[in-house]
Specification:
The complex is a heterodimer of chains A (about 350) and B (about 375). By secondary structure, chain A is of the alpha/beta class. Chain A contains 12 helices and 12 strands. Helices cover about 35% and strands about 20% of the residues of chain A. Classes of the chains: A alpha/beta (about 350), B alpha/beta (about 375).
Chain lengths: ~350, ~375
């Protein structure tokens, strides 16, 4: 495969509510300027553009059409869009770089969840004939998943609260995080349920936000930065949509993605887990022990910009390589109810 | 670096205004099953699935690929969802091709669909958007001024649109999958139909269809096990904003740039002579002469003359939309892939009654948004050098 690396990353401040449109333009323009300014490039240096967003989240058809106004694509650009988290847009861009047609790509994702009722909106991802009419919302489905693991002894409410405490305390050093700082575990466990067995701290907040990553191949990457975050493997897979037909305490698709990406030796793993028990599930499924630092950014539990949060994980994991603070890192992104679809991207630094 | 890729098989549904006999999953599977049978592959042969469709509001399901994962045979495999407006069917095929060209997969299934009867597309396209001109009249109202502008600029006679409509509907009549099949339609009957969005008449307008299309794309080795694969010679995608100062909406630069990149990649210097059949996204009749110019088949202002001369009809120099095109079937999200698949069917010799004899190089074309998203490919009967 061709050597392709993350060379630039920028993200907006994750916030409960922003004043801009649902097209993402107001969040994207500043971070495009930041990432391109940091690399000393402009839009003419980008060979391929790919974005991730959702019309349902934006409450309109074709939200990505207005989003490209953040680029100002005159003259026209080579561009595509996925209706998914922008981590999957990064995958499409990585593929495009692998064809050799282009040497650089810019990937972005955005979501303004504050514009609607996120829990109910996500219920519309379910089977429209048999399940969606019952309106089980995204928190309720995650609650069912958490309950299964508690009843089987796979995890506990205390272990879940420990994940929340660690995430939100880690977020104290993340200037982009929406939530930072946490009460102690015992105090959290004294709080009421939001959707039994989930308490508020078990759930990602509702967030507006956007993120952008620049990819480059071979010598172009080396020209841009001293220490590119070389992608050694990126893969994704999907599980059955039928919640009753798959093991909700496991994640076959995450395991398959990890196997295909090759995750041995990672020092840091940025996991996209909007619910505390999902981190416990993935740590077990991916076999991470105490030697792997889990989601030092604070992760989705500290800020969860829909359709960008997976890309943020890749950016955060790449930042450890770019800064030299780690040699090999992993990022994970998820999509769909109860971890239905999962992507794993592994990056490493190399000595010159 | 770039690996060869070819279409191994294609499939499509019978397109109708309403397909109450199938669910969304059933609609997709009708096309997928035909494509996989045509490609002579089973589920174990498929490494990844790419799904495309236009806005989720058309069916009222958010990211329907998630609930369709089982029906698409994607469980345990990579499933990628593409959405690039009306060009999405073409973009989906291009993304599937790139998965093979990148050397990542050997065989990829691409499917594009729309079940428009689940909702009202006009409504879904007319949700008010801050700082944007409303499109309350739907696509026809949006594009009619572009057509009027083309007529003024080119001096085309008013009956050109009717020629296209009559030709495409007659072509649709010999395509067993077409939604509208009107063998007796004439230029005069089109001109007598009701005016909807001046200068676009009812018979010059695409239908609203339920339908799906699928293609199986494979690498060089996979192609060896297929009789007459459709080799992918070039692909191109370009986008530009809906509006900007000085934008030419009749002959958009994104379309011209995409065509130039396509012909360059395919090694084609004279498209009119080197392309044997063109499947061009023509949802309103006048877009045939307009896109003939944007694609560079003829100089600017000359597209209508090629149409008027009859050279775009079956038997002409460049048959355009031998399948009947978008004017005969329009499941929006699938319409682009239908153009790509029909182009492939021609070089594979599998186009049935609308087969153009000796088709060796063909064009598949799709566009979307406000004439701002373009996706195209050239396929050929021979493996490119």
């Amino acid at each position: 495969m061709r050597d392709v690396a993350v060379v630039g990353f920028a993200q907006s401040r994750q916030r409960r509510r922003t004043d801009g449109t649902t097209n993402g333009v107001e969040m994207l323009v500043p971070i495009f300027a930041e990432v391109m300014g940091g690399l000393g490039i402009d839009k003419r240096d980008i060979g391929f553009w790919c974005s991730g967003s959702s019309d349902y989240l934006a409450g309109r058809a074709f939200s990505f059409i207005s989003a490209i106004d953040a680029i100002g694509p005159v003259p026209p650009i080579n561009e595509s869009h996925v209706e998914a988290d922008a981590a999957w847009a990064l995958y499409e861009a990585w593929i495009k770089l692998q064809t050799g047609e282009v040497d650089t790509a810019l990937v972005y994702g955005f979501g303004k969840s504050s514009a609607g009722d996120l829990r109910r909106t996500l219920a519309l991802q379910l089977d429209p004939y048999t399940l969606a009419p019952l309106w089980p919302d995204s928190v309720a489905i995650a609650g069912l998943q958490a309950r299964l693991g508690i009843d089987s002894g796979a995890w506990s409410e205390r272990a879940m609260a420990e994940v929340a405490v660690r995430s939100r305390r880690d977020a104290e050093t993340n200037p982009y995080a929406q939530l930072a700082g946490s009460k102690d575990v015992d105090e959290l466990l004294a709080e009421p349920y939001l959707a039994d067995p989930l308490r508020k701290h078990d759930c990602a907040p509702i967030t507006d936000g956007a993120a952008v990553i620049v990819l480059a191949a071979g010598d172009r990457a080396r020209d841009f930065v001293e220490r590119p975050a070389w992608i050694t493997g990126v893969a994704h897979a999907v599980d059955s949509a039928h919640l009753g037909a798959r093991d909700l305490q496991a994640s076959a698709s995450a395991v398959a993605a990890a196997r295909n990406a090759g995750i041995d030796g990672v020092q840091v793993a940025e996991l996209h887990t909007p619910f505390t028990h999902q981190e416990l599930l993935l740590r077990s499924e991916l076999g991470f022990g105490a030697d792997v630092r889990i989601t030092p950014s604070g992760g989705a539990l500290a800020g969860n910009p829909m359709f960008a949060a997976g890309l943020v994980r890749i950016g955060e994991a790449a930042s450890h390589i770019l800064s030299g603070s780690a040699g090999r890192t992993l990022a994970h992104a998820t999509s769909g109810p109860a971890l239905q679809q999962n992507l794993v991207c592994v990056m490493e630094g190399r000595d010159r | 670096m770039k690996q060869p890729a070819a279409v191994l098989g294609t499939g499509q549904t019978h397109h109708k205004a309403k397909r109450p006999d199938v669910s969304m999953a059933g609609l997709c599977r009708e096309a997928i099953d035909r494509a996989m049978a045509d490609a002579q592959v089973g589920w174990d042969d498929i490494d990844a699935v790419v799904m495309g469709k236009a806005p989720d509001f058309f069916e009222g399901v958010m990211m329907p690929e998630l609930f369709l994962a089982d029906a698409l045979g994607a469980v345990g495999k990579p499933l990628l969802r593409v959405h690039t407006a009306g060009s999405v069917g073409g973009s989906t095929a291009i993304v599937a091709a790139s998965l093979v060209q990148a050397g990542v997969h050997d065989r990829v299934l691409a499917v594009a669909w729309e079940k428009q009867s689940e909702s009202n597309a006009m409504w879904a396209l007319s949700i008010p958007i801050p700082f944007n001109m409303p499109v309350n009249a739907g696509a026809g109202g949006y594009f009619a001024p572009h057509v009027r502008s083309y007529i003024r600029r080119s001096g085309a006679p008013e009956h050109i649109g009717a020629i296209v409509a009559a030709k495409d509907r007659r072509n649709g009549a010999i395509n067993p999958y077409a939604h509208l099949r009107q063998p007796d339609i004439t230029v005069e009957s089109v001109q007598a139909s009701q005016m909807l969005w001046d200068p676009i008449r009812y018979d010059e307008t695409c239908p609203s269809s339920d339908g799906a299309c699928a293609v199986v794309i494979g690498g060089a080795e996979a192609a060896r096990s297929v009789d007459r694969p459709g080799w992918i010679h070039a692909t191109a995608m370009r986008s530009e904003p809906t509006t900007y100062a000085g934008r030419d909406q009749v002959n958009p630069q994104a379309g011209r740039d995409a065509a130039a990149a396509l012909w360059r990649q395919a090694g084609i210097s004279d498209p009119l002579n080197e392309i044997d059949v063109a499947e061009i996204y023509v949802p309103f009749s006048w877009f045939e002469p307009m896109w003939l110019e944007t694609l560079g088949f003829v100089p600017q202002g000359q597209g209508w003359k090629l149409t008027e001369s009859g050279e775009t009809a079956l038997g002409g120099q460049l048959p355009v939309n031998a399948s009947g095109g978008v004017l005969s079937s329009n499941p929006i999200g699938a319409s682009g892939m239908l153009r790509f698949a029909e182009a492939a069917m021609q070089v594979m010799g599998r186009a049935g009654d609308h087969q153009v004899d000796g088709a060796r190089k063909t064009l598949g074309h799709a566009y979307g948004g406000g004439s701002q998203f373009f996706a195209m490919w050239v396929v050929g009967s021979e493996q490119p050098e």
